[in-house]
Amino acid sequence: MRIALDAMGGDHGPDEQIAGAIQALEESDLKLTLVGDEIAIQACLDRMAPADDVLSRLQVVHTSEMVEMGESPVDAIRKKKNSSVMLAFDLVKKGEADAAVSAGNSGATMAAAIRKLGRIENVSRPGIASAFPTLKKPVVMMDVGANVDCRPHHLFQFALMAAAFSRVFEIKSPRVGILSIGAETGKGNILVKETHTLLANSSLNFIGNVEGRDIFQGNVDVIVCDGFVGNVCLKVSEGLIEAATETLREGIMNSMKAKFGYFLAKPVFLKFKKRMDYAEYGGAPLLGINGTGIICHGKSNAVAIKNAILEAAKIVEIKVNEKIVASLAEHPEPLAEKK
Amino acid sequence: MRIALDAMGGDHGPDEQIAGAIQALEESDLKLTLVGDEIAIQACLDRMAPADDVLSRLQVVHTSEMVEMGESPVDAIRKKKNSSVMLAFDLVKKGEADAAVSAGNSGATMAAAIRKLGRIENVSRPGIASAFPTLKKPVVMMDVGANVDCRPHHLFQFALMAAAFSRVFEIKSPRVGILSIGAETGKGNILVKETHTLLANSSLNFIGNVEGRDIFQGNVDVIVCDGFVGNVCLKVSEGLIEAATETLREGIMNSMKAKFGYFLAKPVFLKFKKRMDYAEYGGAPLLGINGTGIICHGKSNAVAIKNAILEAAKIVEIKVNEKIVASLAEHPEPLAEKK
């Protein structure tokens, strides 16, 4: 299997991308195509000096064009036809790669994927799923940013697609919940109430409303919400962890005794950090497109890139898209509401 | 000044309410009316034995009726006309108290406040504000649960009301932001984009879109959002702090070395907990009603109740409602969009 990696994506430049690519090849028998500036990529490879076995499974597709983080996705896709992210998805389209991974501009990655690969038949809106760390298994949330104004049948399809994706975490009959503000049926806004009805009448293992606190408890496997709410949840979690870490760090640095105490308890903190770290969960898969694509956080480090590459391979391997097609075929009714 | 306290509210029964009431009287020269079951209240008072000076400023209004936590607010308000929360707001209506505080059923508290006190003229939708802990001053978020389906002019009014309330934290010209998923103007859902225009054309100190992570940074004073999104933020934060604490606790308890390290660093953790603790921020004020009311978390301990009582007094003292009236008068245009 071959994965295409946008080597120019992310806030850290090609270094983290290529370090992640090398780690992924060291841990698997995958093949990788790095898409980006040949000279910059070669300089990284020279510096990192991977083993011959790794090098033999790496190939480079050169382009000097790339989408900047702040750029308008629509403009970028229209004007930069040879950007690294466009070429990465072009490789998937031509069958020269099985999946594409990018830590670049999320909107442009989404747009490039749809432009190059199109949607799975009957999918109204492709979206972005994300795996949240919990006290037990990760929980898959969808949508986390692609679709900010949604109708009930969009959310219904997110449930089908996210449930198919959750198989990546060895979850057999995923418990599906809808994010609301109160556990009782009937709580929530109009969108939630209408989607609740669709989900309750489906063959999904629907457990009803879940609340923000349930995201981290691990008693639900798939949480459905619109892309606005999902993205807010993502950013609130990140912001809280950052603020909490900063507050603790400050307090610890201001006291010798606390500093020593922290030193003793450090393994516990590192384990905690690993558990809460988005990097451990790879990237966010684009679901509903006719192919496989993963969006990584702009801040992704090498570990996050490595995990995203391995995740992409897993999605292809367990045929998530075939499962989505089957699930859509099994639930044609809500599609009738599309108009 | 006299505050009415729903002595029967909250998950912990009257104990925490009355302990909080006593603390509030010890720290201020307020007067308090406890509304609830006389025998239960007296039993608490006998046990807690407050000083004579405190006792002399306490009075009890007896009722045996109370709203349960799971009860439908609409039914509760209709059927239980003598419930403790209804009588507490009745005291405010009759001018026998200046504000009411309840840690009971939030929906019923909101409904009782509106039923007894009515809305401030020209307010379309009263809502619930909440102060989030940040790295600097608290940030006021509104709405956090009362209005789940909103129109732009509702959010606009939330901004005016929350800005007036933020004076409680000695904030002079509050920076107002709208919660969105991207800092740039034009990012967000339809509701956010339309509200953005209203806010940008107002005399508020509007700083544009803010993101979930900004909630904890302290670089914005007032964050506006609909009650669905606001409530999700609240619950996500609570859930994450709970999950993080649980994960750390487990790790620490499993290692002698970490346990000793934690012991040394404990003051830092306690300070952190205090900073992140909702109890330190009192309750959530109901804004837009013709009077002053505070909803406390059902889990409120005595400290939270004490802080909510002091907060209610501060709201009355700095005349938040008069400021809301003035602010509404200054911004009549968006009201025209009400239809």
UniProtKB/TrEMBL annotation, chains A, B:
It is an enzyme of class 2 (transferase). One of its GO terms (molecular function) is phosphate:acyl-[acyl carrier protein] acyltransferase activity. One of its GO terms (biological process) is fatty acid biosynthetic process. Keywords: Acyltransferase, Cytoplasm, Lipid biosynthesis, Lipid metabolism, Phospholipid biosynthesis, Phospholipid metabolism, Transferase. Pathway: Lipid metabolism; phospholipid metabolism. The keyword Transferase applies. InterPro entries: FA_synthesis, Phospholipid_synth_PlsX-like. Its EC number is 2.3.1.274. Catalyzes the reversible formation of acyl-phosphate (acyl-PO(4)) from acyl-[acyl-carrier-protein] (acyl-ACP). This enzyme utilizes acyl-ACP as fatty acyl donor, but not acyl-CoA. Belongs to the PlsX family. This is Phosphate acyltransferase.
